[in-house]
Amino acid sequence: MTTPLQLPVTVLTGFLGSGKTTLINHLLENYPGERIAIIENEFGAVGVDGGLLGQHSGIEVIELTNGCVCCSVRGELTEALKNLLEQRDAGQLNFDRLLLETTGLADPAPVIQTFFVDDILRERLQLDAIITLVDSEHAQKQLTEHRVAVSQVGFADRLILTKLDRIDSDAKTLLLERLRNINAKALVCEARHGKLEKAAWIGIQAFNMDDSFDLNGTFVASTAPSQAPTNFRPLNQTSKPLARSWNDDITSQVFETGEVDIKLIGAFMETAIEKYGNDMLRYKGILAIEGEPRRLIVQGVHKVVGFDYGTEWTAEESRKTLLVIIGRNLPVETLRNEFLATAVSNAVS
Ligand SMILES: Nc1nc2c(ncn2[C@@H]2O[C@H](COP(=O)(O)OP(=O)(O)OP(=O)(O)O)[C@@H](O)[C@H]2O)c(=O)[nH]1
Predict the structure, then answer these.
(1) Mean pLDDT computed over 13-31
(2) What span, in angstroms and rounded, lies between the C-alpha atoms of 237 and 136?
(3) Is residue 162 in contact with ligand 1, taking CB distance under 6 Å?
(4) Which residues lie closer than 8 Å to 57 by C-beta, 6 or more apart?
(5) Separation of first and last alpha carbons in the chain
(6) Which residues form the CobW/HypB/UreG nucleotide-binding domain (predicted)?
């Protein structure tokens, strides 16, 4: 949970030209009440139209221009974040959330780690979500040619498809299939020239320990259904089989069983994270622990992991354990067998 002292941070990523700036501009135009600090990392370019920003008194824009935020300016990012917090504490700046737009060439991993590694930042900031924009027109090519584009999709809590006006429905179906193969956990929504409700990507609390797993095996929006934007949908399987012509090194694995033993599942998670954490981009599980009325929720990024108890299982629910791991070249069958060995009841029907 975000404590009163913690500020939420949204990391916005997506390959070059995927529409990040367009989306931010739409946010600023349509939600003028937002008090938001934007950190831009644009290889020296001014990403957001200065004239437009000038009209929004609640906006602070900090530009990191000495290179890519994921490598050379990582220290600069930490400093910029601390500076912002100091200025806010001193009453010089007034904002209640942060938005970090990474350059289209950035791998999100080191950026995300910044928020967990530094003690002050960990205490004062709460990562809200990683939002990845996908340029529907060019994504297939970018995913094939640029490893970083696959990584950006793999880390995402939300995928926002842009430029859908540029492709037909068959191409969209194929793209959704490929995205699902990489990241079955992320919800997908669509932005038309940046138009998207704020609730679809701001304040979604993806790093909170909630139980936003659909027990039918798909992920659902963490927002309550009544508040959820209408264009949310999980990446469902398409009805007809599609010829896969890609070979992405990052894929999603879904492991499922019935009740598990607390010690065995704990040891399994610990070993898996220790051995393969560097290749586990994101993972999330809802665990049904034998003898425990509540769900145990686990989620993490690489070797940063959190466990917490969620809501109780109701009498009507079947106690299922579900774990999704998005990773790079993982020994899937070994992990699956080790996971299944933690079960005390048979796999769910
Ligand atoms: N056809 C179409 N064009 C779009 C859409 N969304 C954004 N664009 C255009 O795509 C181009 C790139 O958009 P930007 O918002 O600058 O993309 P970016 O991700 O900030 O780009 P970089 O900063 O270079 O990584 C611009 O010309 C936008 O007008 C869309 O939904 N449809």
Answers:
(1) 91
(2) 18
(3) yes
(4) none
(5) 33
(6) 8-188
Q: What is the pTM of this model?
A: 0.81
pLDDT for position 160 = 97
Contacts of 238 (CB under 8 A, 6+ apart): 173, 176, 177
Give the residue whose CA is nearest to atom 14 of ligand 1. 19
Please state the φ and ψ torsions of residue 245, each to the nearest 5 degrees.
-115, 10
pLDDT tens-place string over residues 243-255? 456 778 899 999 9
Contact 212, 222 (CB under 8 A): yes
8 Cβ below 6 A of ligand 1: no
Collapse the DSSP code of 312 into the 3-class scheme (helix H, G, I; strand E, B; otherwise coil) and give the result: strand
**Tens-place pLDDT, residues 127-143:** 999 999 999 999 999 99
* Closest alpha carbon to 19 in 43, 41, 47, 46: 47
Ligand 1 centroid–CA 331 distance in Å is 37
163 lines ligand 1 (CB under 6 A): yes
Ligand 1 atom having least distance to the Cα of 45:
23
Are residues 206 and 349 in contact, defined by beta-carbon separation less than 8 angstroms?
no
- The residues near 217 (Cβ < 8 Å, ≥ 6 apart) are 254, 256, 322
ipTM above 0.90, yes or no: yes
Beta strands in 150-303 (DSSP E): 158-162, 187-190, 250-257, 280-288, 294-301
